[in-house]
UniProtKB/TrEMBL annotation:
This is Mov34/MPN/PAD-1 family protein. Coiled coil: none annotated. It comes from Paenibacillus aurantius. The keyword Transmembrane does not apply. Residues 42-110 form the JAB domain. GO terms for biological process: proteolysis. Keywords: Hydrolase, Metal-binding, Metalloprotease, Protease, Zinc.
Amino acid sequence: MLPIKKIIIPELLTKETVRALLSFHPSPFKNHEGILYWGGYDFNDTVIVATCVVPKATSGPQEVHTTPEANAEVISYLNKHGMTLIAQVHSHPKDLKRHSAGDDKFTFMPYDGYFSVVVPFYARKAMSPLTMCGFHMYHRGKFHVMPDNWTMQNVKMIPGYVDLRGNKNGLTHFK
């Protein structure tokens, strides 16, 4: 049985994730897969995503590759800021949100509770709702595809900004 683990991610970081994945496209009319890592804080049953880190990578229409040196830079950056590696996030063509055999074999540094997130349509359709993405959890030596109902219950997108002042433009005027 897989452990229950929740992912909390600010909505602003899902937008940055999409922006970063789109940056791998060589032009508006050519698609390439992209990759980045989510860093943050792991509290055993809950992880909080705090940043997106884009490694040096080479990409093509159906592939993306990083080097051990590029991945070491990611870990160094996260360690410097007191964070841990939470997930690998990469894009796929079409509506493909499941891992390929290469994804299972070449995912960087998986550990029990590590996530791999696949964003379909080369990230051109964003990440919302989150069930359009494929969430995979590494447990006991392999990745497990998490069903959409798991994603709806356990992956929470939270607002990055909330204004509770109640007035239309958020400003308070004094006379």
